[in-house]
Structure formats: C-alpha cells, structure tokens
Amino acid sequence: MKSTHRGRRSRSAAVVTVVSMTLLAACSSGGNAGGGGDGEIRMMVNLTDNLNQAYWEKLVKPFEDKTGLKVKIEGPSGKSVAESFPQQLAAGTAPDVIQSIFPDDDTAPELLDLSGEKWAAGTPMFDDYAMGNAHYAVGVGEQAQSLVYYNKTAFKKAGISEPPAAWDEFTADLGKLKKAGYTAMQTAGQYQTGLQLQQLDHPTLNIAHPKWQTAVKDKKLSVGDAYEPMFRKYADWIKAGYVAKSDVGLDPSQADGNFIAGKVGFYPNGSWFTSTVDKAGNLPFEVGVFSPPTDSAGSHPGPQGATMADPYMVLKGAKHEDDAKELVRYLVTDATAIATQLEADGVFRQGSTAKHSAVGTQVQSILDDAPSLVAVGEGMGNTRLPVTGFNPKFTEVAQSLYTGATPEQAAKSIDQWVDENR
Amino acid sequence: MTRKNVSRIGAWRSAGVRAGMVAPAVLIYAALLVVPVGYAFYYSFTDYNGFPNRVPEFIGLDNYRTMFESHDITGTMVVTAIVAAVGAVAVNLAALGLALLLQKTNRFNTFGRVVMFYPHVLSALVVGFLWQAILGPQGVINTLLEKAGTSSLPFLSDPDGALWSMILVIVWSLFGVQLVLYLAGLQAVPQDLIEAARIDGAGRWGTFRAVTWPSLASTVTVAVITSCISLLKTYDVVVSLTGGGPAGSTKTLAYSILAVSFPQRKIGVASAQAVLLIVAAAIMAITVLVLRRRAENDAESIG
Questions:
Q1: Which residues of B touch A392 (CB under 8 A)?
Q2: How far is B151 from A402, CA to CA, in rounded Å?
Q3: What is the sign of the dihedral through the CA atoms of A14, A15, A18 and A21?
Q4: Distance to chain B for A397, nearest Cα, Å
Q5: Where exactly are the structural domains of chain B?
Q6: Nearest Cβ partner for B51 among A26, A106, A249
Q7: What is the pLDDT of residues B81-112, one digit of tens each?
Q8: Mind listing the pLDDT tens digit for each residue in B173-195?
Q9: ipTM over 0.90
Q10: What is the architecture, at CATH level 2, of domain B71-302?
Q11: A66 lies in which domain range?
C-alpha cells in the first residue's frame, strides 16, 4: 500500500517535472515611446570598435551645446539595431532616433515621413530609399558594395599588368595568381559567401537586368535566372581550384586576415573593408581596388551596388519628435558632423573632397566614376524583392555551390524559396 | 465562541497563510512561463508581425501548414531530430562512463570532475568560437595536418562533417551536468548490494548490469530528458560555430525560430515552430517516462 502511494506521488512529481521542463523549453515572443528625461533625445546606434560610445557623444556634442538639448546615446539591447528596434517598438520603448537601419513595410508606419523637409531632399540616396512617395531615411553618404581589393605585389609576380575589366580577363588572372602561389580569390563562410557572390555580380546583373528586384516582383524575371550566370562562374572557379572549397567553413575575419597577410590575389568586399586595411598599418604589399568586371570591357565600370551610409530615421509620435528631427538634420547637413562621419568608418560620399587614405582615395574615385548606384540584395525603397530574409537564404544557396550543387540546382533552389515566401 | 468555530477560523487562517506563501511563486511562474507559452500558442494561429500597430489576424492552421510545406523548416526538423537523438545518446554514454571512472573520491578524481564540468561553465557562444578556432579550415588541427604534409579535414566545410562536428561540440559542452547527475546517482547505489553481488561471484560487468544500472534508473530518466530538452533547443553553438552552414546543413529548429522567422517578423510561423518544439519535448519526455515505468512494472512482475 505504502509503495503504491509512493509510486503515485513519484509519478505525479515526474509529470510536474516534465511539464515544467517542457514549458521551460518553450520559446516565447516578446504604443510608441521615445524620450528619456526632460528634453533628452534618445538615439539608438550600432556600437562598434570604431564607432563607440565616446565617438557618438563627441559627434552630438556641438548639437547639444548649440541647442541646450541632451542626447542619450543607446546601444542596441540585442545583437544589433535591426534586431532591437522592432522589439522595442513592440514593447513601447523605442528610441526617438534610430541609426544604421532602413525602413520596411512593417516599420514604415511607425516612422516620421521626412518628405516635406527641404534640408532632407539633398542628402545622399534620399530618393533611392523612398517607399511610395514617403521618405523615412536620410543619410550621410554611400557604402560602395561592389569592390574587389587586390594585392599589387601579387599582380606583379603573376605578370598581370592591370586590373581586369571583363570576366574572361578576370578568370585568366585567377589562373595566373594561382600559378604564382597565391590564393587566387579569397572567399569566406557565414554571411560572407552570399555577400561576396552578389558583390561581384552587381555591375553585370544590373547591366543585364536594371532594377532586377522590381522585375522579380513583377514576375518578369526569376532570381535563379538573374544569378545563374554568376553561379556558373563560381562553380567553374571552385572546380579549377581558384576558390578553395574549404572557404565555406572559414570565419570572415580569418579571410580578412589572409588578405592583410599578403597571401591573396583578389578579395571581393565592400567599402567598409578600407578601414580594416588602413588600421592594419604598413603592409608588405600595396593594396589596389577596382570595380568588378562586366561581360565586356567596353561596359566597365558597371553600375555600383550601394547602400545609404549612416542612415537615420525618426520615430513618429516620439515624445521629442521635433527635437529628434533637428538632431537628424544636424547629423546629415552640418559640415563638421558630415566630415566626422565620413572619416570615421570607411564611409564615402559621391563628389566629396574629404581626405582619405590611399586605398580610400581609390574607393572614392570608383564611387565618383560609377555610372549609377544600384540596389543590392533584397533591395531598397521602391526597388525591392517581394520577399524578406533574402540574404541569409542566398548565402545558403551560394554555399551549396561549394558543397557540390550544380549552378542549375542552385538557381532552382533560390527560385523555390522565393516562390514559397513570396 | 464554541471550540468548533475557533478551530474552523484557525483552519481558514492556516489555509490563508499557506495560500499567501504559495501565491507569489504561482504568480511568477504563471507570468514568466504559462502566459508566454499561452501567447505562443495563440500567435501560432495568427498572421502577426509583432508590432503594436497591427492586430494579430486569426488564420487557423495556416502557419502549421506553411511550416510543414517549407523545405527549409522541415530540413531544420530533421537536423534537430538527429542532434537530439545522437547527442542524447552520446552525452549520456560519455557522462555515465566518466562518472563510473571518477566515482571514487580521491584528489585525482576531484580534479578530473572539475575539468570535466568546466565546459558547461563556458558560454555556449564562447564554446562555438573556441571550437571554430580548433576545427575551422585554418584551425589548430588543420594547420597541424598541413604542417605534417597531409591534406586538411573538412570539419566545418562539408555538410556532413559540419553536422557531426557540431554534435561533438554540443556533447562536449553539455555532458558536465549529466556527469554530476550520474555521480550523485552512483553515490546512492547501496554498497551492501554491490558487496553481496561480488560475494556471489559477479564480475564488474555483472555487478553493473544487475545492481548499478537498475539503481540508476531514475537518474538515467532525468539525465536523458534534460539532455534531450537541451539538445532540442540547440541555438548558440550553431550561431558561433557554423552559422547554420555550410548550405544550411546545421540549421536547427531553434536556430530557424530565432535567426530566421523572428527577424523576418513572421511571429505566427515562429510561434508555430516553438509550439512544435514544446510538443516534441513533451512527447520525448513522456515516452521516456512511460518506457521507464513499463520496465519497472516488468521488473516488479518478474520479482
């Protein structure tokens, strides 16, 4: 009898334990706010090694001195501003000003339309980020997305006289660099696999299909058809050993390190990599930069993939909406504020005469010479794909080329995903 | 006032005190666990982006349909099942084996227990970065292999290699807790039974099979259930070791919820995935309990 009771009790205890642990296993999902103390504007920024708390406080100090307003710099509560802003919106604790991210269909209703502001109209890429007729983001400059950094010493040793302008020249140069003992082209795993493939393809893709994201949205083009030519090139380079299969497991920071160490010929990356090169100090080789090749040398340089640099958005209905707007106006129009931001972290601006390093100067001239600036990845403003989460999925598909998928399979795979998520 | 009334008032007072002491814990439990899980169930039947300007729209079972029709999500289910099944077996075998080796108390074993528990103290993100530096294409092992003149191994650059590497790393980081459970369980095994078995001529294996293993039944149940639940929730190591790659081959369901569905603001689909995880954990736990109960009943009926 006693043992039966004990059994029942232990069974009940076990069931309670299981239910508790099951609940513990559960993952749960989490009115506009803004405004800190009296007259305090809250601005959420991405904090990095370069752009740290001290940098942001110094940047807004002249504004504080001039207006008597206080600006509270806040880092994201999660991994990034992109992750934290929607969470804070849902929790009703969103800041007045949001830096580093762009509006989308979900966040736009929560943001202030800056269309009527005269000071905003002349800022970089203002119209490129328009959604319908509304403008929610203003920025300081442009980030060039389609660049190939190269090792000039490796070029000399491989017998290459100048950067390639067409893809057949590029492929021939890869062979020469490999023969000379260099990693012909450095790629990497994680987010960087898909990013690099897109970076190389922006000019060519946008010559063949201008505003290709809109064409996909209108069902006039599939993503697979758009990218299959570049998938083929990649598959051929991997097969020829110009791109190492093992790169797919390589941490992007190690890929950066390989280039800095002088082991690499070509390294596709964005303009932000300039600050990494500059920080590395005196390198044992000279770094060059060029815009990726196009199908024929005559059409080089092609359109440059670009995103707005240092974008700012104002929360609609924020406690200090007008003050927040003034702060953003200061950040994107004041000459000192612009100069500080351009010099801080590899940020560029078409037509700018800001002082840059030797590598930065090359990037500035690529940006100035670009026939147009085009949307990258999922797109921007009105030029957008009909799906969200494109870049992570595209990376998966690009990585499948390293693990044995054919270009046709990769193209089919991305199309299938777009169809499932459209 | 009669004695009966006084005792009734005393009983009420006592019940009130008991309820007052329990209430805060019940309220905290409900607020932190029951309510969020309830919300997850509710959102799983809605189309919702998580923003206050949008009212969740009831869409019935559409999120569940989307989940089971998506190649991406069904792929993460398979990976999660492999990680949970293989990982649970490996974690428990490793923990039990080491517990048997380290059960006697002496200086070496005490040191050994600390060393074995140490991985569990590390953050899972740190564990991932650490092993990435060891197993990566330019990690310690592959650098040594290259220096030795042999070709490198695709621990993280091949889909199968990355999955097994990830399971190895998770097992390494998890088994410390199971080791402590088994060590505690072994302390409770009656020494007189072990001695009796030895006097009866049982060898080490015979003693383990006839005495130690049956005595550890409840410990094994708890260890298997807790390890399975931890493995079903695998997320941090995926982020820091493989990023879900190569080509999505190491994406788990928890990773898909937190790194794919939530950032895409598909709160309904993410909640449906979370509900699936809850159901999977419950089925697994109940199955283990039922199997153990059946084994106990069989043993009792034989006895």
A1: 244, 259-260
A2: 17
A3: negative
A4: 6
A5: 71-302
A6: A106
A7: 999 999 999 999 999 999 999 988 888 888 98
A8: 999 999 999 999 999 898 899 89
A9: no
A10: Orthogonal Bundle (1.10)
A11: 40-139+311-346
